[in-house]
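HUMAN: Mind sharing a backbone?

ASSISTANT:
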Amino acid sequence: MHPSAIPSSLSSPPSRSSRSSRSSRARPGPLAVAALVALAATAACSSKDKDAPAAKASAGAAAKASAGPAGACDRREREHLCGEYHGAMAKPAWIKGECDAMKVPMVPACPAEGAVGRCARDVGTPQHTVTVFYPPLTAETGQAMCQGGQWTPS
């Protein structure tokens, strides 16, 4: 293309007056601002999503703990105890194996009736367990046996 065919507005640097008018046109409009805000929000959400698995895991552990045990070994006949398994490791087949090894029945949960107290250990971890104590054991004995755990009298 011959230089004379190029419009003068494109071939020469803009004058001061055209620069100021161009800069006013170069400012982002409301739509561009909204797009930038949406892009920033998306970036912020994606960085939060990196932490989401840990948050979901914590929430899942808390929900599982409040939902009750995955199963329990009823040792009341011999030891006046019953052990509940709440943590992520508490799979029914594993609990059944534990109960079978102790030669005690597996039950859905330890009975609350007649209990003198409960000792929770490793709460919020995969090894979360609760031992429930029954007479002739006393609350004082149960609490003494719960050293390092969270004692709740019945």
In short: The beta strands are 71-75, 81-85, 106-107, 117-121, 129-133, 150-153. Residues 30-49 form the longest helix (20 residues).
